């Protein structure tokens, strides 16, 4: 898992992807820190840091003595976060550029439809 981003972020994103695609269902036990560390051949502290990112965002919940589980509503929470991120990173700059060159919202929608 080498792509320039910290390994713990990649671990968190991998789990997010599994939640979003349904391969890790809400209420299901998530991989443990040790399982992730063994699988990815990384330090357990690094895996724990990735898991803790998801716990902090309410995607995973800790059940003392049992493990980590996917929180109810986690998939929808992730979809909403991604929608917002998409809007912030792509739509806002696109609309700013459109205004800069004199395109209306309708023009932008028309261009999107042509390319879709």
From TrEMBL:
Domain HTH gntR-type, chain residue ranges per copy: 5-73
Keyword Transferase: no
Keywords associated with the record: DNA-binding, Transcription, Transcription regulation
InterPro entries reported for this sequence: Tscrpt_reg_HTH_GntR, WH-like_DNA-bd_sf, WH_DNA-bd_sf
CDD domains: WHTH_GntR
Name of the protein: GntR family transcriptional regulator
PANTHER family: GNTR-FAMILY TRANSCRIPTIONAL REGULATOR, HTH-TYPE TRANSCRIPTIONAL REPRESSOR YTRA
Transmembrane segments: none
Any one Gene Ontology molecular-function term assigned to this protein's record: DNA binding
Classification via PROSITE patterns: HTH_GNTR (PS50949)
Keyword Transcription regulation: yes
């Amino acid at each position: 898992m080498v792509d320039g981003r910290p390994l713990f972020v990649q671990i968190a994103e991998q789990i997010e992807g599994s939640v979003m695609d349904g391969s890790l269902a809400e209420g299901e036990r998530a991989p443990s820190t040790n399982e992730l560390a063994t699988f990815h051949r990384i330090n357990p502290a690094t895996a724990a840091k990735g898991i803790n990112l998801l716990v902090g965002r309410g995607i995973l919940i800790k059940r003392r003595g049992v493990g980590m589980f996917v929180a109810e509503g986690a998939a929808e929470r992730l979809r909403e976060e991604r929608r917002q991120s998409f809007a912030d990173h792509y739509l806002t700059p696109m609309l700013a550029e459109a205004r800069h060159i004199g395109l209306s919202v309708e023009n932008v929608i028309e261009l999107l439809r042509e390319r879709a």
